[in-house]
Specification:
Elements (H helix, E strand, L loop, with lengths): L7 H15 L6 H12 L7 E6 L7 E5 L11 H13 L7 E7 L2 H7 L3 H21 L9 E9 L5 E10 L1 E3 L6 E3 L8 H21 L15 H8 L9 E3 L6 H11 L10 E4 L3 E7 L9 E7 H9 L10 E5 L6 H11 L30 E7 L22
Antiparallel strand pairs: 1-2, 1-13, 3-5, 3-8, 4-5, 4-12, 6-7, 9-10, 10-11
Helix pairs in contact: 1-2, 3-8, 5-6, 6-7
Length: 403
């Protein structure tokens, strides 16, 4: 894949030192580690390997530097997503799948930034409990369901916008596990009912967290440490509609996989969305959801330091899991529940992939760019080291004056 002309790493390398100096004392250790990882990703600082085409007539040689594997790095998500997707593919069932989104109102997002671990966790728990409870109610579905939840904390303009995406099979097991109960092909659950219960459960959990002194308040929100002030702050939220919506069901397992490949390992902004950067600003593509039609796709220019601030706003707390499974798909009993669902749906057991041979040479996933042959790794080198082999020189691009 061709390297983008502009990367987040370029912006961090050029402007990161000045940004860190200007924000000294206000940058978390986690944010500092993310910046350093992205700056060093796929550079000699992390070491790498040399690969050569196994076609003797070609012998094309490339040098590839190691990735940082940080979950916030724009360059490191593709390989991780592919490996994760291979595991999920074997778990899909021959039923409609629905996409449900739970969003926090702006006043909650305002205090979530300094309470990420607590409030993001409550978002997961309240949305999951809501979905499981309503689905189990006989008048709605009357089934034990399972689903996967994905946390996103951003809007298209890199603003702070915490919300959960759910991918939900359209049905579940009966209470005794003896049959599969399917929902309607084009309808999952009533979003108005989901919204009302989600609002109640989340606010109950939020008040409990405040009573347990698990929330921290700073700046304009410092006064919310007082219980009366906090109750007054959240009181209006009890009377508004919280945004919960269900999209049309996916058109088959293949579309589910395509969706998951885009969403599971997505970060706040990809390198492909970057357009330009100079000493003062960064311009990128974004989607304005307030506009319908093609006009919603436009560009935004931010001051460089503001761009960095917004990017780092979405660094998750250490150890926080942004992909979680609930109900029948919860990690402890997932395999047994999927096997039971397959049996009730008369679905054949998945074929096991063959075990790789121990003496199989290390082969890159991408073929030789010259002849399409296999690219075999012939050397690895440590961090900061220089490889013994040289890369094949790239031919000059015809028609471009390089003088």
């Amino acid at each position: 894949m061709e390297r983008p002309a502009l990367e987040v790493a370029d912006i961090f390398r050029d402007h990161g030192p000045a940004w860190r100096e200007a924000n000294k004392g206000h940058v978390s250790l986690g944010q500092m580690k993310v910046m350093r990882a992205i700056e060093r990703c796929r550079t000699a600082a992390l070491g790498g390997h040399v690969a050569r085409c196994d076609n003797a007539a070609c012998g094309h040689t490339v040098i590839a530097y190691n990735s940082c594997r940080n979950r916030h790095c724009p360059k490191c998500q593709g390989a991780q997503a592919r490996a994760w997707m291979e595991e999920r593919e074997a778990e899909l069932l021959p039923v409609p799948y629905f996409h449900v989104v739970y969003t926090l109102p702006a006043p909650i997002s305002g205090i979530a930034y300094t309470n990420k671990a607590v409030i993001y966790d409550l978002l997961f728990k309240a949305s999951a409990e809501t979905t499981l409870k309503i689905a189990a109610t006989r008048r709605h579905l009357g089934a034990r369901i399972g689903f996967m939840s994905l946390l996103h904390t951003w809007g298209s303009a890199l603003t702070h916008h915490p919300h959960v995406h759910m991918v939900v099979p359209g049905g579940g097991l009966s209470a005794d596990g003896s049959k599969w109960i399917a929902c309607r092909p084009d309808y999952f659950l009533c979003v108005e009912v989901l919204s009302a219960l989600f609002r109640r459960l989340f606010l109950e959990m939020l008040v409990a967290a405040h009573e347990a002194s698990r929330l921290r308040f700073f700046g304009d929100h410092a006064g919310l440490a007082d219980r009366a002030a906090f109750d007054a702050y959240i009181a209006p939220l009890r009377d508004i509609d919280w945004v919960v919506y269900a999209k049309e069901p996916f058109a088959g397992p293949e579309q589910v996989l395509r969706y998951l490949s885009r969403y599971t390992h997505r970060i706040a902004i990809s390198n492909r969305r970057l357009i330009a950067a100079d000493e003062k600003s960064v311009t990128f593509k974004y989607k304005d959801y307030r506009i319908e039609g093609p006009g919603r796709y436009t560009t935004m220019t931010l001051d460089t330091h503001e761009f960095i601030r917004r990017f780092l706003m979405h660094v998750l707390p250490k150890g926080f899991h942004r992909i979680r499974h609930f109900g029948l798909l919860a990690n402890g009993n997932r395999a047994a529940n999927i096997a039971k669902a397959r049996e009730l749906l008369a679905m054949p057991a998945p074929l096991k992939a063959p075990e790789p041979e121990n003496d199989e040479p290390c082969v890159l996933p991408r073929p030789c760019p010259c002849c399409g042959g296999r690219m075999l790794i012939i050397e690895t080198f440590e961090r900061g080291a220089t490889p013994r082999h040289k890369a094949t020189p790239m031919p000059p691009v015809i028609g471009i004056d390089t003088s």
